Amino acid sequence: MRVFRYFDTKGGIATLATRKMRWASPRSFNDPFEFTPEVKPAEDDLIEQKLRGDRWVHEFHEKIGKTKGLNEEESKLAYLTEELPRRLEQVRSSKEQRAEETRLQLLDTAAKHFRILCCSHTCDSILMWSHYAEKHRGLVLEIETDELEPGVNLVPYVFDVRYRSSPPVISSLTSSMEEFESDFNRAFSTKALNWSYEEEVRISCAAPDGITLDAPLDRNFPLSCIKRVIVGCYAHFAPRVIEEIEEMANQSDYSHIKFQRAIIHSREFKLRFIDRP
Question: Which one of 42, 71, 98, 107 is least enclosed by Cβ atoms within 10 Å?
């Protein structure tokens, strides 16, 4: 898949020169509604099913039953007849609070375990150039995702962002790991309609152990995955950028890349791309 990554002048040139791509923490995104789905409180029968699980019975026996001199069967009976009703009432009374906690914890969970490369399906969005490419002074890289991580199939880690008028609804208590992953991915890849002009595609990778929640991750990439470099139509306001791009274009390592420049269309509100002489 071909995707496009918008850069300011400094970031774009540094990325090409160092061959390191910066993957962002979800906590650094500029949308305050990232990972803020509507969380539906769990149904009572699902709560009870969870609390009847062997894990909770065993835990009750180890922590309470044994101190009372109960064997495993006696502990199980005491748990089901005395402890379970108390816990059910406690959970039911705090369902709304637990749902809000689930919503707030999603973002930190994502930041702890993932780093994201945010790209786009389009390279000619006037708004994207304005917002993410230093007001048309920066540049755009065309990336072949099949070559971004040699030997790794990235397809399961690539998500097209869906744009909706309201947040997705997920459950605060899922019945299986598959259901949790589905809910998580929907929260991860859903944004408000206001952002639809971005035509965003997200690529995720695992965050290394111990990384702080806000820290980005710089990852090496093979230069072969870069297929095109487009310089903004206002790059002439930063002539050093053009000089550095020209120097790269004349090096053999970059000979496979098509270098282009954006120009303003003379009759329409859109950009055109022309090849360098």
Answer: 71
Q: Which residue has the tokens 């890849």?
A: 189
**Model pLDDT, residue 8:** 95
Taking the C-alpha atoms of residue 149 and residue 124, their distance in angstroms, rounded to an integer, is 26
In sequence order, which ranges of 79-176 are alpha helices (DSSP H)?
84-93, 95-113, 126-132
- Predicted confidence at residue 46, as pLDDT, reads 73
Q: How far apart are CA 121 and CA 7, in angstroms?
A: 15
In angstroms, what CA-CA distances link 238 with 15, 127, 136, 260?
A: 18, 20, 11, 16
Residue type, position 116, single letter: I
Q: Is the Cβ–Cβ distance between 34 and 107 less than 8 Å? A: yes
Cα-based angle 235, 237, 239 (whole degrees, multiple of 5): 70
Higher-pLDDT residue of 136 and 49 is 136
11, 5 contact by CB (below 8 A):
no
Beta bridge partner(s), residue 190: 162
Going by C-alpha positions, the residue among 112, 139, 131, 102 that lies closest to residue 226 is: 139
Amino acid identity, position 80 = L
